């Protein structure tokens, strides 16, 4: 059987497609808003450069050397304690867990694409009412779009690396970039652009506490798709003799620039036409539609384009979240791609319905455990525990378990003199940082 591999550009777009997701356009602006902008953005950027980039290279390396599903790759690369290390590969499950809420949010986005064509809410209050009505009462709409999202994602996965994943990324990623750049250029022409710039880059360090710091680090991981085996699984299909460092650079660069471009654009619109940087997950679903309303008919066009771009970002990430487990069942249990894709799809689809219901009045009560409902728990457990844990394991694995020689033979020619710095950061800086983040996210620190 011929093994399907990504082309060079196909790999970069697919990995960037994984990285650029709801994290960049939905999450980043609202958490930046929550922590007052500037200083938070700088902490995030530094983390992306120092820790994110290093782990990106490490995660790519495991996939590239292992050439198999995440579990097998860990197993085969470990010189000792294979049967223990292989459990690190089960990080791939985290992606399926993320999908439980990710697919529901993509459903909301589909709904917003459709409704923005005809009408936008005139005020923030109205927008808030529209959003909460959908969230708290409208099971059918949410279920319908969650089903659309599940069907599309599963279908793409059945088509495989080349005919499915590479193909959709080659179309959706350039489209997403064109939409965002077009809207960004319009934002540049508005007076409020300088306010947005100021909000995002003028650092007010008084707003930075340990909570802001930890959120920034956690988000750097989430946004780069690290620690879940998504990048690893794609890297198993990288061309021979690829330059991992260059590839990692492109993915980090695209993810970071898209977050900044989207953030600047959104904040410009919110300053110019709305109530300024809003807080909370409702930012793009509540404050933004109300700001678009003020733009008249152009606002409708922008709203549709914006939510389309957001859907593209979410869908390209989704396939990468499910693919690790699909690959696992294909490699280890010799399942057909069809069977593996359908089963993994059904898993997140069905549990996703519980997540969806946990926001709905009447169901919420039974689906709330302690401080959070099921939906928020899944978000929290994946971002706070599974992701940093995955990153930690990968750093330790490449830093200590795999022989240095092997790592060097591939990366020394690509990293040159910086190899030792990278290796040191992976062995000591990253694990310590990840450990601190995990402890504080679960409330021990
Ligand atoms: N990076 C994606 C985002 O920013 C989310 C993601 C996390 C995708 C982990 C794959 C793996 O939305
Ligand atoms: Na991202």
From TrEMBL:
<feature type="transmembrane region" description="Helical">
    <location>
        <begin position="139"/>
        <end position="158"/>
    </location>
</feature>
<feature type="transmembrane region" description="Helical">
    <location>
        <begin position="421"/>
        <end position="444"/>
    </location>
</feature>
<feature type="transmembrane region" description="Helical">
    <location>
        <begin position="37"/>
        <end position="66"/>
    </location>
</feature>
<keyword id="KW-0472">Membrane</keyword>
<keyword id="KW-0813">Transport</keyword>
<protein>
    <submittedName>
        <fullName>Sodium-dependent transporter</fullName>
    </submittedName>
</protein>
<feature type="transmembrane region" description="Helical">
    <location>
        <begin position="87"/>
        <end position="110"/>
    </location>
</feature>
<dbReference type="GO" id="GO:0016020">
    <property type="term" value="C:membrane"/>
</dbReference>
<feature type="transmembrane region" description="Helical">
    <location>
        <begin position="380"/>
        <end position="400"/>
    </location>
</feature>
<dbReference type="InterPro" id="IPR037272">
    <property type="entry name" value="SNS_sf"/>
</dbReference>
<feature type="transmembrane region" description="Helical">
    <location>
        <begin position="248"/>
        <end position="271"/>
    </location>
</feature>
<keyword id="KW-0812">Transmembrane</keyword>
<feature type="transmembrane region" description="Helical">
    <location>
        <begin position="291"/>
        <end position="319"/>
    </location>
</feature>
<keyword id="KW-1133">Transmembrane helix</keyword>
<dbReference type="InterPro" id="IPR047218">
    <property type="entry name" value="YocR/YhdH-like"/>
</dbReference>
<dbReference type="InterPro" id="IPR000175">
    <property type="entry name" value="Na/ntran_symport"/>
</dbReference>
<feature type="transmembrane region" description="Helical">
    <location>
        <begin position="340"/>
        <end position="360"/>
    </location>
</feature>
<dbReference type="Pfam" id="PF00209">
    <property type="entry name" value="SNF"/>
</dbReference>
<feature type="transmembrane region" description="Helical">
    <location>
        <begin position="170"/>
        <end position="193"/>
    </location>
</feature>
<feature type="transmembrane region" description="Helical">
    <location>
        <begin position="213"/>
        <end position="236"/>
    </location>
</feature>
């Amino acid at each position: 059987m011929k093994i399907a591999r990504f082309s060079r550009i196909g790999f970069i777009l697919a990995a960037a497609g994984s990285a650029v997701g709801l994290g960049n356009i939905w999450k980043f602006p609202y958490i930046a808003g929550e922590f007052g902008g500037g200083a938070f953005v700088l902490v995030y950027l530094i983390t992306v450069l120092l820790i994110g980039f290093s782990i990106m290279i490490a995660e790519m390396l495991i996939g590239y050397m292992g050439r198999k599903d995440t579990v097998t790759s860990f197993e085969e690369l470990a010189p000792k304690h294979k049967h223990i290390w292989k459990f690190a590969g089960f990080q791939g499950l985290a992606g399926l867990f993320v999908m439980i809420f990710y697919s529901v949010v993509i459903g909301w986005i589909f709904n917003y694409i459709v409704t923005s064509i005809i009408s936008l809410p005139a005020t923030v209050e109205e927008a808030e009412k529209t959003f909460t009505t959908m969230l708290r009462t409208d099971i059918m709409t949410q279920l319908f779009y969650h089903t659309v999202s599940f069907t599309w994602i599963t279908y793409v996965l059945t088509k495989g690396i080349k005919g499915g994943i590479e193909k959709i990324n080659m179309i959706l990623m350039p489209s997403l970039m064109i939409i965002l750049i077009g809207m960004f250029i319009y934002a540049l022409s508005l007076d409020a652009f300088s306010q947005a710039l100021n909000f995002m880059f003028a650092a007010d360090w008084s707003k930075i506490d340990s909570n802001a710091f930890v959120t920034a680090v956690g988000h750097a991981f989430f946004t780069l798709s690290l620690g879940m085996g998504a990048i690893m699984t794609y890297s198993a299909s990288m061309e021979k003799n690829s330059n991992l460092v260059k590839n990692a650079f492109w993915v980090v660069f695209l993810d970071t620039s898209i977050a900044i471009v989207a953030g600047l654009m959104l904040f410009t619109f919110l300053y110019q036409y709305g109530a300024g940087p809003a807080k909370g997950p409702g930012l793009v679903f509540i404050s933004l539609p109300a700001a678009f309303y003020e733009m008249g008919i152009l606002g409708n066009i922008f709203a549709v384009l914006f939510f389309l771009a957001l859907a593209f970002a979410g869908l390209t990430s989704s396939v990468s979240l499910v693919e690790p487990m699909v690959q696992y069942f294909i490699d280890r249990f010799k399942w057909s791609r069809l069977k593996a894709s359908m089963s993994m799809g059904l898993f997140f689809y069905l549990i996703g319905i519980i997540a969806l219901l946990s926001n709905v009045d009447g169901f919420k009560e039974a689906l709330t455990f302690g401080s959070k409902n099921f939906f928020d728990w899944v978000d929290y457990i994946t971002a706070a525990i599974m992701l940093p844990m995955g990153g930690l394991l990968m750093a330790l694995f490449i830093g200590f378990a795999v022989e240095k020689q092997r790592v060097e033979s591939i990366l020394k020619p690509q990293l040159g003199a910086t190899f030792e710095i990278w290796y040191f950061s992976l062995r000591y800086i990253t694990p310590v940082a990840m450990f601190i983040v995990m402890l504080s996210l679960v409330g021990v620190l």
